[in-house]
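Support request, please re-run this one:
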Amino acid sequence: MPLSRRALLMLPLAGLLPWPVPSLAGLTVFADRGLAIRGYDPVAYFLDGRPVRGQAAFVHAWGGTTWRFASAANRDRFAADPSAFAPQYGGFCAFAVSEGYDAPIDPNAWKIVDGKLYLNYDRGVQRRWEADIPGRIAKADANWPALEAKLAAR
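Re-run finished. Output below.
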């Protein structure tokens, strides 16, 4: 379905909305002050194996919010295939989603499992999530569609 002229004019403002951010594409993304992953570069988790702060000079709008990157190359990688790098569950805490609720994240509490990025509230919660990663992912995958719809309706 094509976007209306009014919706297209509002796209630049999408990154200024409070968390959670329902996008026009039907994706809900955790955003803090208009930035996904609190301004960290999602591609860096995969390429550098660690969280890296993104720079204001390298941004890309996707999922109704702004994503920052450490380099133009990382931005371009993300822009070519956002779903390959974006965290699961819109960047909300994977443990919380497995329990059926949403929670913010700490960019330092992360893990890549089967080529997908998962973020958690903090390192303590991440240790609880890591105690049963397959079970937590299965529960979160089952919970996410209803939780995402609830967040989008806020």
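DSSP finds seven helices and eight strands in the chain. Confidence is low (pLDDT under 50) at residues 1-25.
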